[in-house]
Automatic annotation (TrEMBL):
Record's keyword terms, sorted: TPR repeat, Transferase
CDD domains: Beta4Glucosyltransferase
Coiled coil stretches, renumbered: none
Organism name: Cohnella nanjingensis
Entry-linked PROSITE patterns: TPR (PS50005)
One family name in Pfam for this protein: TPR_8
Residues in Glycosyltransferase 2-like domain copies: 4-131
Sequence ranges of the TPR repeats: 192-225
Lineage: Bacteria, Bacillati, Bacillota, Bacilli, Bacillales
InterPro entries listed in its UniProt record: Glyco_trans_2-like, Nucleotide-diphossugar_trans, TPR-like_helical_dom_sf, TPR_rpt
SMART domains the record matches: TPR (SM00028)
GO MF entry, a single one: transferase activity
Keyword DNA repair among record annotations: no
Keyword Transferase on entry: yes
Name this protein carries in UniProt: Glycosyltransferase
Amino acid sequence: MQVSVCLIVRNEEQNLPRALASIPASFETVVVDTGSTDRTIQIAEEAGAILGHYRWNDDFAAARNYCASLATGDYLLAMDADEELPADTAEKVNAFVERQPHSAGAVILENVIGEERPRHRMVRFYPNDLAWTFHGNVHEQIYYKGEPASFENTALVLRHYGYDEDEYARTGKAERYIPLYERRLASHPNDAYMLYQYGKLLYSLNRLPEAERYLRRSFDLQEYNRLYFPVMAVMLGYVLKEQGRSLEAEQLLTALEPFYPDFPDLYFLLGLLAMDTGRITAIQHYYTQALNIGETDKYTSVQGVGSYKAAYNLGVFYEITGNTQMSVRCYTMAADYGYGPARNRLK
């Protein structure tokens, strides 16, 4: 079995060496350049990659599909230049193909954002067959025979550096993506995933009323079974909370408990909202539920909400309500993860 790693790049001389160095030697590497003016092309050539050129037309899916057309492997792994593969990539890929032959696979993207390492899943691995193609000019998704592809989860974890503040500012991603979102939504106004992505970008820019509008439109389309939906709903909850509307957020999210009983981020946020609204007994319930679920790779999740962050907040609850024994137990649990605020509480 041959695997081809496919990258589309432009002016990535700072990131590309790290990405290429992480690709297993047994894998084929395909790099398609969309108009670099730095050393990107030279770096790809020196690494021995198959090199292609694509005239940029504001369409990531079209560029990805062109890159795939140059690959000769049985399976394709789409990768970005600001990502890095782990040392066990070949092992994880082979295990997935043995378990789920001819299937698309969702990898885990671990985002490096300061001290945080939030994770989310994206479908990046798929058979090299014309029935499998990317769709969408921005935040492109894998389709099978013209419909969103079904997939299985892989154990492969890619480290993503693109959300690092310095990297985000250097590449100007926010400014580049806004017109792409607007163009897509002008022709596909009910694209719930794109509405979510635009709302997510606006939230990152602290444009809360606008973010709420797009996230709400995405939420109202009720695509409960799509990979993005639970994290979009939680994001909408944070947007409402940050605008002083915690009760509204709580009412919105409690209705989702039957759909996502194993999503720690949902219960962690419900704990925060219960603190805001003064529902004392609910605080304990929600943080305990988050701890019982634990950390997850099934959903896009913020590190700590199923472990040390939930334990710390539960410790604060017990401390405020006078249960010193339980507060110390929770702070100790959080401190064992190296969580500084918990260590400070124990001093």
